[in-house]
Amino acid sequence: MPRPSTTAPNPAWTDPDCPVARTLDLVGDRWSLLVIRDAMDGARSFTEFQRRTGIARNILSDRLRKLSAHGLLARRTAPPGRRPEYVLTDSGRDLFPVLLALRQWGERHAFDPGEPHSTLVDEHGIRVPDITPIGTDGTRLDADSTHVRKTGRTV
Fold it and tell me: Which residue of 42, 57, 80, 120 has the fewest C-beta atoms within 10 A of its own C-beta?
């Protein structure tokens, strides 16, 4: 029998039992994901993030602080005379499949046919194949073949 929770749910969570909602609470705004995207593409400094995204300085400061506080980016000392750098942590790198799924959805649905867009390629210059969730039996998973199993929260 599960033990009752001894702590109340964190009121900062939109939906405390849902991993999707908690993830969106952490990185669900457009700027956070664009900062993570650019960190994956090699951006390290405040100036690089600002130049690549066009984000306002105050918003960028807030997002870098938030992403660092939640362990997605690590702030490290840069060489003397330079500002601090921000690097992805393992948690930040774990967002790669999320950004890949968003990119691939965008390639299919956010551009007109033939409209040019950037392409993600591997280390050999070959386009990254579409991701497809597969079940343990090898069948393709989608919204029609899966469901959420709710947890029983006791307070």
Answer: 80
